[in-house]
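for the writeup, i need someone to sanity check this before i put it in the appendix. the sequnce is what the collaborator sent (i think, or maybe the updated version? ugh). structure was predicted straight from it, no edits. if anything looks off just tell me and ill rerun, i have time this weekend
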Amino acid sequence: MSDIKILEERPISMVEVKSALDKSKKDNELNFRALKASEYMNAFVKLKPKEYKELYDKIEALAIPRLKDKHIIKILDIMPQEIESMKALFINDTVTVKQDDLKRILEALK
């Protein structure tokens, strides 16, 4: 087996995946898995890359302590509309976000 070397590890949003799949689709035919992923992205990704970037910058500008890139990306992928949905995103993480900060994030998403 060949040795695979990981050069970089970073979270990637569904908007970025959709853009990459769309770009790949223009150049050549997608394989079965890529086609299924593309169908999923088309069904669930509602943001355009520009809108995504604006919302990302808005949430990042809130300067919420302990909120990392992966959390912001998860928030923008799910686009929660209420506090309880927002709290559910952090259940498996060791991060705790204050209620006031959750409200500020929800306001930024509107």
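The chain has a mean pLDDT of 89. Helices lie at 14-27, 32-44, 49-61, 69-78, 83-89, 99-109.
thx in advance!!
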